């Protein structure tokens, strides 16, 4: 088969599809990057929020339209199918195959056998994890699914219970990636703070980080998606004591008003969240903290929104994402009263983003004059493009490094920061 793969949604999907590519190649199939060259197309979907659903449906419709010009086997897989399979099969008969949340191994087998429909209990983690290609960074999925009770989130509905991969499996994958020149390993899960609770009887992220930190090689570790309600001193200590774990904390707080946090099903109140942030910065003054918030949550009054703005002014996150709330079927939040007008919610989002632009400039300015280790990944016309510990791939900023000779890419370099450029930094090699 000549197979084209289109990945939508989160980095966990990207990691899964990279493993799928490697399995398919090992079975003698060819991965192609043009619809014209493909006899099979796989679309990996997402349905975390309404926007992701729309993007997935639009992509499916585009490929259905293309099938009128060229014949190919069209397979749609992933979260959207896991959640809405009966409706999708009825409304989009042009699609040849529908697969739910499957491991890459099961998916490869289903594609080879031209199975038309395969939606069972979500199969989210796997031990076999070869890779098809090696870039400067790679996502490593350490767990998937979720057992938390956030009222706005439908992930447990279509991803199922929280399941972790073994430490041995993750370590073996990391060793293989490092052997192949990967410089940054980004650990992902629905909730990395819960890692290992199902396998080892208690959250075991610190244990995992100790093991991975001992792996030989020139690389760094970045941890994403830590639940702030379950971030504790042991996790913070593991960051402080590790040599290769970046001082980057991805902690989606979701709001800054106690009233809204309670309606969201969150545990920590705003003062506890701030205490957590202050403890991180006290322990690690160079820490970069990324978060995300939701505006327009049912019952969010103007005073709640003002509380959020004040919270953000105190927290001063280096990086922040903001989303407009959307109802998700089957979630407690979708049944709540006090829906916020969409236009008002969008206005609030713009206000948050405007405030964050100011806060980010202030926060980033403290690095001017400092030396930072960066991962130089690409060459542009007048500069190199790099990322510091502040910058997760695809979602954060970059460091523009003034050209001064030829560099091997990718490579770690020490850079003196000269100034800021919006959400980016500019520097020169030391």
Textual characterization of the structure:
- α1 crosses α4, α8 packs parallel to α9 and α12 runs parallel beside α13.
- The protein is 36% helix and 22% strand.
- The chain is an alpha/beta fold and 430 residues long.
- The model has no long low-confidence stretch (mean pLDDT 92).
In DSSP terms (H or I, runs of 4 or more residues), the helix count works out at 13
Largest sheet, described in full?
A: 6 strands, parallel
Specify the overall morphology. globular
Unreliable spans are none
Average pLDDT, all residues:
92
Number of strands: 19
Short description:
By secondary structure, the protein is α/β, with parallel strands linked by helices. The protein has helices at residues 11-26, 50-66, 79-91, 104-112, 155-159, 167-179, 197-200, 205-213, 233-241, 258-263, 270-283, 302-315, 342-365, and strands at 2-7, 30-31, 40-45, 73-78, 97-99, 117-118, 137-141, 143-144, 163-164, 184-188, 220-223, 248-250, 288-295, 319-324, 371-379, 383-387, 399-402, 411-421, 424-429.
């Amino acid at each position: 088969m000549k197979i084209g793969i289109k990945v939508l949604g989160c980095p966990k999907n990207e990691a899964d599809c990279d493993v799928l590519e490697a399995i398919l190649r090992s079975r003698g199939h060819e991965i192609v990057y043009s619809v014209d060259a493909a006899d099979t197309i796989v679309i990996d979907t997402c349905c975390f929020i309404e926007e992701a659903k729309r993007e997935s449906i639009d992509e499916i419709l585009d490929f259905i339209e293309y099938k009128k010009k060229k014949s190919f086997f069209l397979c749609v897989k992933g979260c959207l199918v896991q959640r809405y399979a009966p409706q999708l099969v009825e409304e989009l008969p042009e699609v040849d195959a529908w697969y739910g949340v499957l491991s890459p191994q099961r998916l490869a087998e289903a594609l080879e056998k031209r199975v038309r429909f395969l939606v069972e209990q979500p199969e989210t983690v796997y031990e076999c994890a070869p890779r098809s290609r090696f870039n400067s960074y790679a996502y490593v999925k350490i767990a998937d699914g979720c057992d938390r009770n956030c009222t706005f989130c439908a992930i447990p509905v279509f991803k199922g219970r929280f399941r972790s991969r073994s430490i041995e499996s993750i370590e073996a994958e990391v060793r293989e990636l490092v052997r192949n020149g990967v410089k940054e390993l980004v650990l992902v899960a629905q909730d990395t703070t819960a890692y290992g609770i199902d396998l080892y009887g208690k959250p075991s992220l610190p244990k995992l980080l100790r093991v991975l930190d001992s792996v030989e090689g020139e690389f760094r570790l970045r941890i994403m998606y830590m639940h702030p309600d379950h971030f504790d001193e042991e996790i913070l200590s593991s960051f402080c004591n590790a040599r290769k774990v970046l001082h980057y904390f991805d902690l989606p707080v979701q709001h800054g008003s106690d009233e809204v946090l309670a309606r969201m099903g969150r545990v920590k109140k705003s003062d506890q969240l701030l205490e957590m942030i202050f403890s991180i910065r006290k322990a690690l003054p160079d820490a970069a903290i990324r978060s995300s918030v939701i505006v327009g949550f049912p019952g969010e009054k103007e005073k709640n929104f003002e509380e959020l703005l004040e919270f953000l002014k105190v927290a001063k996150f280096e990086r922040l994402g903001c989303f407009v709330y959307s109802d998700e079927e089957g979630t407690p939040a979708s049944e709540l009263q006090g829906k916020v007008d969409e236009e008002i919610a969008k206005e609030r989002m713009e206000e948050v983003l405007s405030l964050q632009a100011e806060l980010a400039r202030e926060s980033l300015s403290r690095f001017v004059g400092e030396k930072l280790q960066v991962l130089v990944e690409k060459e542009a016309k007048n500069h190199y493009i790099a990322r510091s510990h502040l910058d997760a791939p695809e979602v954060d900023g970059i460091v523009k490094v003034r050209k001064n000779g030829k560099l091997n890419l990718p490579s770690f370099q020490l850079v003196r920061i000269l100034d800021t450029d919006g959400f980016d930094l500019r520097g020169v090699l030391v």
